[in-house]
Amino acid sequence: MPSSPCQLFAIAAMVCTLSATGFSAGNNATEEAAIRKLIAATDNASMPPPLMSDAVFWSGAYKKPIIGKEKPESTSNEKRVPGSQKLQTQPLRIVVAESRDLAYEYSKFTLEFTTEGGKHVKFDGGLLRVWQKESGEWKQAAAFMRPYVE
User: Fold this and answer.
1) How far, in Å, CA of 129 to CA of 111, rounded?
2) b/e per residue, 59-75, with b = 16+ CB within 10 A?
């Protein structure tokens, strides 16, 4: 049992510090889990995750970044068969900011689809994605996806 006010204060400070550390880690783990759930849902539906209204997206499929609702300029004349796309994402790192309203993700991915010309395309790549929380919901703020060069 602590015998002096200094010892009591030191114990109280240590308990508060440990509680705050545990609370912070728990929340970041919860936020990371929510982002991982969005990534998995995107893979399963082959649809983009929820997007910020001014989201930036750039991949090897487009000539320049797409900002918001801009119409993309494809680098290819071959269109994909609707519903043929399959995406498999393997998150390697997700870091949630201390503020818990921004995060970044680095992942590997495998993308495959069939073109209207009947060509089956499959490749691996890397992606860097920024997530932003808006009204309590994680949304993609920016993404850069590129195939690995062989």
Assistant:
1) 16
2) bebbeeebeeeeeeeee
Strands 66-67 and 86-96: unpaired
Query: Residue 147 has what pLDDT?
Result: 93
Two tokens, residue 53: 């209204």
Split into its structural domains, the chain has a count of: 1
Any idea what the CATH number is for the domain that residue 45 is in?
Answer: 3.10.450.50
52, two tokens: 């910020």
Of the pLDDT bands very low, low, confident and very high (cuts 50, 70, 90), residue 46 is: low
pTM of the model: 0.76
**Full residue range of the structural domain in which residue 139 is found:** 5-147
d(CA 25, CA 47): 30
d(CA 123, CA 113): 10
Other beta carbons within 10 angstroms of residue 97's beta carbon come to: 14
pLDDT score, position 133: 97
User: Per-residue pLDDT for 150 more than 60?
Assistant: yes
